[in-house]
Design goal:
The complex is a heterodimer of chains A (293) and B (281). By secondary structure, chain A is mainly alpha-helical. Chain A is built from 13 helices and no strands. Chain B is an all-alpha fold and 281 residues long. Chain B has 2 domains: 61 residues; 205 residues, MetI-like (MetI-like fold, Orthogonal Bundle). Helices cover 74% and strands 1% of the residues of chain B. A two-stranded antiparallel ribbon of chain B has the order 1-2. In chain B, a hairpin with a 2-residue loop joins strand 1 and strand 2. In chain B, helix 3 packs parallel to helix 6. The chains are: A mainly alpha (293), B mainly alpha (281). At the A-B interface, helix 1, helix 3, helix 4, helix 5 and helix 6 of A face helix 1, helix 3, helix 4, helix 5 and helix 6 of B. Chain A: It is found in: Cell membrane. Chain A: InterPro entries: MetI-like (IPR000515), UgpAE/MalFG_permease (IPR050809). Chain A: This is Sugar ABC transporter permease.
Chain lengths: 293, 281
């Protein structure tokens, strides 16, 4: 049958695109990560030095340790906040009502805004002198009046989380709403007839059934939080000090400020390894589902 | 006894209802406020910028300024359109063919192949861009549309294959099989029968990929300097040594966002599927 060859021909263009634009650069980065190559010294790749960059990053680089810790904090707060808010909002929005449909209608908007623009707008709104959020926070909590959010290491990280959650919570709410609408109605109604309280219905019926969707939300959000870059550039610039330098931003700094391609590749690959690990987990989760994917 | 319990229950219900409305109002405020504030700022004169009042004399000057020299945001608008448009035009046909093969045929290594294509969307862009930066520097392709299109294909193609496979799986195969029995070739069947049936899905995927490319920042930041700067990098130019020109940033921000708002509302129902690849319907 002609189909036997044709099916591979059909896949070829897309496979070549993925091969050329992703697999090839990944391989080159991996090779480069074992080389000593600073663009300031030489325009061509230097000698192989073995796993030295990896050893340095993992044992002897305060910048890497700092970025790892910043990224871990960012991911932990961001993912927890996103999952909880998206779940709560979706449960509320499941019901009918004017406010409900109005909110559902605007959920898609933040995700359409460029992350770089989100970062720069939040920088404006948290500006010390005339940022509207600075002012609002001061109006609600008096001792926050005139607080310089982006000059405090912890507050700056929280503003970064806020800006990211602003973009992702509404989107993930849509995802959870999709999951909720796919659940069968009967178990919840049966539990209500048995006089279970709303909280019991949620804890014992809705939440367990929703677990697969929440897992998707949590893993996807972890992946995108680990890659966090755009808003770091436009919102905090990694500061104050190095308090918001994420791993992706560190790679960028090493490569394009210090021009150390070998070391940048190694750090990039450590980040990649974490993400590939998550990717495998995620695929198993969704491809196992019959009729999924 | 019964009566008081009923009133208590009703009162509790009323409180819950009020609480629910309050939370939703807060959510609406949080979602809309940054967008509204940006829109308002775009029409403010610099003197009104630091006023937190809603009453000001609106002006279109900011929009005139960003299109004039030295900002020339029109060039970035053009670059963004060309890069996103070309990326979609290259990616969608290739992805449609691959998605069709994944949807209709059994093959060796199918699982592994599909898995590889999908897994690539988890790769951080920063690891992809390093080799491309060096390659484009050697080839003299830095700061060109071509360079941006190539790297953006890395992001867009896996998404497109995944989304399109979902749409193709949902298309019934009877008319395809009938045409095949009648002696039509597989390619004719794809072009004449499958593509017209899955056309809405192709459009949705194209729009989704266009939005992804349009908003892309990291590649454009590293690979462009002057000629090929796209809008997301273009707005960072308004942060000058003389300070941040917020009113111009806001005007350019509106320019970037309005087309994406329109596009995303068109495909709203399918937007969720794009990112989660049909894991969540």
């Amino acid at each position: 049958m002609q189909d036997r060859r044709l099916k591979y021909v059909l896949i070829l263009p897309a496979a070549l695109l993925v091969l050329g634009t992703t697999i090839w650069p990944l391989a080159v980065s991996l090779v480069t990560s074992f080389r000593d190559w600073r663009l300031t010294r030489s325009l061509t790749p230097g000698p192989f030095i073995g796993p030295e960059h990896y050893v340095t990053a993992l044992t002897d680089d305060p910048d890497f340790a700092n970025a790892l810790q910043v990224t871990a904090s960012f991911v932990a707060i961001d993912v927890a906040l996103t999952v909880v808010c998206a779940l709560g909002l979706a449960l509320l929005l499941r019901r009918a009502g004017v406010l409900h449909s109005l909110t559902r209608a605007v959920l898609i908007l933040p995700f359409a805004v460029s992350p770089a623009l989100v970062g720069i707008s939040f920088r404006f709104m948290f500006n010390a002198e005339m940022g509207v959020f600075t002012w609002l926070a001061g109006a609600v909590v008096p001792w926050l009046q005139g607080y310089v959010w982006l000059a405090d290491p912890v507050a700056a990280l929280l503003v970064l989380v806020f800006s990211d959650a602003w973009r992702w919570v509404p989107y993930m709410t849509l995802v959870v709403l999709g999951g909720l609408s796919a659940l069968p109605k009967e178990p919840e109604e049966a539990a209500r007839i048995d006089c279970a309280s709303e909280w019991q219905v949620f804890r014992d019926v809705t939440l367990p059934a929703l677990m697969p969707v929440l897992a998707v939300v949590a893993i996807l959000k972890t992946v995108f939080a680990l890659k966090m870059f755009d808003q770091v550039v436009t919102l905090t610039g990694g500061g104050p000090g190095q308090s918001t330098v994420t791993l992706a931003y560190l790679v960028y700094s090493i490569a394009f400020r210090w021009y150390d391609m070998g070391y940048a590749s190694a750090v990039a690959w450590i980040l990649t390894a974490m993400l590939v690990f998550l990717a495998v987990w995620y695929m198993k989760l969704i491809l196992r589902k019959p009729g999924g994917a | 006894m019964n009566g008081t319990r009923a009133t208590a229950a009703r009162r509790r219900k009323l409180v819950m209802k009020g609480l629910e409305s309050a939370i939703l109002l807060l959510a609406l405020f949080l979602i809309l406020f940054p967008i509204v504030w940006m829109a308002l700022t775009a029409f403010k004169r610099p003197v009104d910028l630091f006023e937190l009042t809603l009453l000001f004399t609106p002006t279109l000057d900011n929009f005139r300024t960003i299109f004039a020299a030295p900002w020339n945001i029109g060039a970035a608008l053009w670059n963004s359109t060309v890069v996103a448009g070309l990326t979609v035009l290259i990616s969608i046909p290739c992805s449609t063919l691959a998605a069709y093969a994944f949807s209709r045929f059994e093959m060796r290594f199918k699982g592994a192949l599909f898995f590889t294509i999908l897994a690539t969307q988890f790769i951080p862009a920063v690891v992809v861009v390093l080799p491309f930066y060096l390659l484009f520097r050697d080839l003299g392709l830095l700061d060109t549309h071509l360079a941006l299109v190539i790297v953006n294909l890395a992001i867009v193609t896996p998404f497109a294959v995944w989304m399109l496979k979902g749409f193709l799986d949902a298309v019934p195969t009877e008319s395809e099989e009938a045409a095949l029995v009648d002696g039509a070739t597989r390619l004719r069947v794809i072009l004449d029968i499958v593509v017209p049936m899955v056309w809405p899905g192709v459009l949705v995927t194209a729009v989704f990929c266009f939005i992804l490319t349009w908003n892309e920042f990291l590649f454009a930041l590293i690979l462009t300097r002057d000629n090929a700067v796209t809008l997301p990098v273009g707005i960072t130019r308004f942060r000058t040594e003389r300070g941040d020109l917020w009113e111009l940033i806001a005007a350019a921000g509106i320019l970037i966002s309005i087309p994406m708002f329109l596009l995303s509302s068109v495909i709203q129902r399918h937007f969720v599927r794009g990112m989660t690849g049909g894991a969540v319907k």
